[in-house]
Amino acid sequence: MSSLTHRTIRAGSAYRSHGAGQSVQGQKVRQRLQTVVTLTPSPVVDRVYFFEDLVPGAVNRAFAVEEYLGGNGINVARTLTLAGNTTSAVIPVCHLDNSGLALVQGEGDLVRIVSVSAPIRVNTVLVSSGGSTTNANQKPGHLPEPEWRSVCEATLDQLRAMDADWLVVAGSLPQASDGHTVDLRWLLHQARELGAKVCLDINGPDLCRWANSNLVDLVKPNVPELEQFAGHPLRTVGDVVNAARSLADAGIGTVLASMGGDGLIGLGPDGVLWARPPKTPVVNTTGAGDAALAGFLSETCLDPGGPTGAHNRRTSFAEALARSAGWGAVAVGRSTTALGGLTEVPDVIVQEPDPVYRLGNA
Questions:
Q1: Would residue 221 count as lying in a domain?
Q2: Residues in domain Carbohydrate kinase PfkB (predicted)?
Q3: Which end of the chain has less Cβ packing within 10 Å, N or C?
């Protein structure tokens, strides 16, 4: 990968040029938008309070409060739709939850509702003008087996109807009757049988449970989740790369590891790369990882004729990583996870990882 040792990529260019051919290091490639079904097993209502200065343990006066429908899969679907991808978000909703149902209905055709008994959770987000974000996230509730089966069947129906490229299961998993989180095996197996690739963006313990199932093509852990999988702290980029390799060795095809302000590590069949966006003023970090995942999934670069060479595959992977890091950088500068647009996407440096670079290095 010497040609990608240090390369700046215009992360927003793919978003602005759907359907156009791009010349990538002398090779002509074409881009294809993706058809994606997301499942948010435990959606939330995000209530965001904005403060000039947030003082823990004191009475704080918010200068603004916003409320909207949240949840990882919903955020991913919104952003993919903004970029022109065909997307549907499956979400379980209690028909007696009037406030949550009203927010869901405001999403229009983006969502497919599955009726369940558990009300939508609440995520309270405290945002300080200094750039810190604090989340108080309600635990997922209990979902009886018949209701979970209905959610899975609705998701599979949506995959069939759309002939989807991807199934993305994102966010916290509800509790089953046995006290553990719901079982994903049947859903993931059926999705694979339908020809869809599977992406998991779920909590660390659940990610560890499904990492070696051989049913997952892509995962997007953050550093704390990778630390749970690795069993020790990750202090450098090299530590993150090694933990990502362990996930890949467990049977995951591609690992997209989020390192916050330090960018993203992408590890796939063609190697490992580090995408580094510029320093960005932070307004609200909630949903930045969802925007990054949407950026990675948004388009696939395909060789227009004959088998794709390793060099071409590697370049396409770099562009996907650059778009991922760029869209994540856009998200942290917005007040809510409903981005509203993908303008002013910054250029992103894509390079080979520096193993000794310390995370959080100023």
A1: no
A2: 49-337
A3: C
